[in-house]
Amino acid sequence: MAKVYTFLDKKNKQMKNQKKGETIMTLKKLKLSILTMGIVFIMFVSVAYAAYVSYNVTLPGFKVNVTLLQGTKSTNNYYVKHRNILIGPHTDGQAMNVWVEKYVNDDWVKISDTEVHYEGQGPYTLFTNPTNKGDLIRVRAENKSLSVYKYGAIGEIDLY
Asked: How far is the C-alpha of 160 from the C-alpha of 89, rounded, in Å?
């Protein structure tokens, strides 16, 4: 006996196919929205994360200045961060005087107070006079004590 297809059978089959297509479209939209959220989250985390850069310098004797890090400001924030400071050879209370300078009219101008940064302490925040995104700045340092000895110094700075 041959099966007789009625109008309702045809309509039912079309509805099943339509639901299958809708399910596939819904899954594609869900995958796309999850991917989009992931990309937005990664962009947010990379912007919010501090960009510390390492330095490795020798602090000369007799309080001679040295540049720890130089670069352009990445934000309009009025500060610079300094952390993970090691000064050697190791002596108790080893420290350096640190300040920030800005390049203005072919000259370097001091834009922060001089602060003492001790080995193993911090992170320190150096507050600067108004700086704008894109300004060329540098972080300078000298040995805290008036000594004939040279000391190695390493650490990390974020110019913000």
From this structure: 30
3-state secondary structure of 6: coil
C-alpha atoms less than 13 angstroms from C-alpha of 116 in its C-beta half-sphere: 6
Pick the CATH number of 53-158 from 2.60.120.680, 3.30.499.10, 1.10.630.10, 1.10.3720.10: 2.60.120.680
Helix (H, G, I), strand (E, B) or coil at 51: coil
119-132 burial code (b ≥16 CB/10 A, e <16): beeebbebebeebe
Q: What is the pLDDT of residue 46?
A: 47
Task: Compute the distance between CA of residue 145 and CA of residue 148 in angstroms, rounded to an integer.
Answer: 9
Q: What is the pLDDT of residues 1-16, one digit of tens each?
A: 555 555 556 656 655 6
Q: Residue with structure tokens 């510390």?
A: 52
What does the pLDDT look like over 61-114, one tens digit per residue?
888 999 999 999 888 888 999 998 888 876 656 889 999 999 999 999 999 999
Domain boundaries, the chain: 1-49, 53-158
